[in-house]
């Protein structure tokens, strides 16, 4: 299906703090273009070369590190290897952070955020046995590493996808690299949007309604999930309920949080939550600052959930 291979342009634009900022001449610009997370990536840094060149190198290395571990688009990634053999013996700090964050979101969303959704996603996308695939879903069946047990082991028939969180986690990591390099005004779009400085005004769009809201980001991040943005088959949206054939409650869910990974995970799981449940969950995750939802049916007005 061609809809499953769509590409997006992901961008990072940053400016270093400069003495004498009132000068007329613009700062030097450094731009790199490549591919990551199944999409085209562009990084543009403004500032002196002794700042931007090392910052660009570190940002590229960090993106590569997340791709190497968590990409479903690279045949040699850790995640592809884990899904093929059911076990990964060596986990580094990024893996431990990803698993801890996934477990936190799984608990906070009462199981609606579940990285073991991958077999069900594939079954819908390829016309496979969805009942058998659904039986493999269950984060509780994954043997997470402990003090006495190294590595990560999946249950029979299981496979993981971090597509609902990995881009957010990579966004957070790149933002910290650019912050530590002296970048004072940054906007990152690696599937999710994160900023340094501000205030940035960022639009929220729905695949059916178009532009529906504008949010302000100031050292914060925005993630938007819209089930209808991609179809796996003629009836199934790409965001799936892990427990059955439940339909999404919202056409789009937008989350503003200090961490892009939290915004990413909650916006995904939030598609299946009722208003009260989403409010409670957002308050449990202390990184969340704002949640906007657009109903699937009825009024087209965006609803702001108080956090």
Taking all residues together, what is the mean pLDDT?
87
The sequence of SSEs as H and E is EEEHHEHHHEHEEEEEEHHEE
Strand tally, please?
13
In percent terms, what proportion of residues is strand?
A: 25-35%
Category from helices, strands and their pairing: alpha+beta
First and last CA, distance: 39 Å
Rg, Cα atoms, Å: 20 Å
- Sheet with most strands: strand arrangement: 2-3-1-6-7-10-11-12-13
Q: Count of helical segments?
A: 8
Instruction: Point out poorly predicted stretches.
Output: 1-7
Sheet with the most strands? 9 strands, mixed
Overall form = globular
Residues in helices, as a percent range:
25-40%
Task: Describe the model.
The chain is an alpha+beta fold and 307 residues long. The protein is 31% helix and 25% strand. It is built from eight helices and 13 strands. It has helices at residues 49-70, 78-85, 93-108, 118-126, 130-135, 166-180, 260-269, 275-284, and strands spanning 9-16, 29-36, 39-46, 87-88, 152-153, 183-189, 193-196, 200-206, 210-217, 221-225, 250-257, 288-295, 303-305. The strands form three sheets. It has a nine-stranded mixed beta sheet. It has a two-stranded antiparallel ribbon with strand order 4-5. Strand 6 (183-189) and strand 7 (193-196) form a beta hairpin. Helix 1 packs antiparallel against helix 6. The two termini are 39 Å apart. The model is unreliable at 1-7 (pLDDT under 50).
Write the layout of secondary structure elements.
Elements lengths: L8 E8 L12 E8 L2 E8 L2 H22 L7 H8 L1 E2 L4 H16 L9 H9 L3 H6 L16 E2 L12 H15 L2 E7 L3 E4 L3 E7 L3 E8 L3 E5 L24 E8 L2 H10 L5 H10 L3 E8 L7 E3 L2
Parallel strand pairs: 1-3
Antiparallel strand pairs: 1-6, 2-3, 4-5, 6-7, 7-10, 8-9, 10-11, 11-12, 12-13
Helix pairs in contact: 1-6, 6-7
């Amino acid at each position: 299906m061609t809809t499953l291979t769509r590409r997006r342009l992901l961008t990072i634009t940053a400016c270093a703090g400069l003495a004498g900022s009132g000068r007329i001449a613009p700062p030097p610009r450094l731009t790199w273009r490549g591919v990551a997370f199944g999409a085209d990536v562009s990084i543009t840094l403004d500032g002196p070369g002794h700042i931007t060149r090392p910052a660009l190198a570190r940002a590229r290395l960090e993106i590569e590190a997340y791709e190497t571990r968590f990409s479903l688009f690279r045949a040699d990634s850790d995640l592809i290897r884990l899904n093929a053999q059911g076990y990964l013996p060596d986990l580094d700090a990024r893996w431990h952070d990803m698993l801890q964050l996934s477990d936190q979101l799984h608990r906070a969303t009462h199981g609606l955020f579940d990285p073991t959704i991958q077999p069900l996603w594939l079954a819908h996308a390829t016309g496979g046995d969805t009942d058998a695939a659904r039986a493999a879903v269950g984060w509780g069946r994954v043997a997470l590493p402990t003090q006495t047990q190294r590595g990560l082991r999946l249950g029979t028939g299981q496979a993981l996808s971090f597509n609902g969180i990995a881009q957010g986690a990579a966004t957070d990591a790149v933002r910290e690299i650019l912050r530590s390099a002296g970048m004072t005004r940054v906007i990152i779009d690696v599937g999710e949007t994160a900023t340094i400085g501000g205030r940035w005004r960022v639009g929220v769009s729905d695949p059916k309604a178009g532009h529906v809201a504008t949010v302000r980001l100031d050292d914060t991040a925005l993630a938007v999930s819209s089930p209808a943005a991609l179809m796996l088959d003629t009836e199934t949206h790409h965001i799936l309920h892990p427990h059955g054939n439940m339909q999404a409650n919202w056409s789009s869910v937008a989350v503003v949080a200090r961490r892009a990974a939290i915004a990413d995970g909650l916006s995904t799981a939030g598609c299946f939550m009722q208003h009260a449940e989403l409010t409670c969950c957002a308050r449990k995750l202390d990184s969340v600052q704002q949640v906007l939802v657009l109903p699937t049916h009825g009024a087209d007005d965006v609803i702001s959930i108080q956090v």
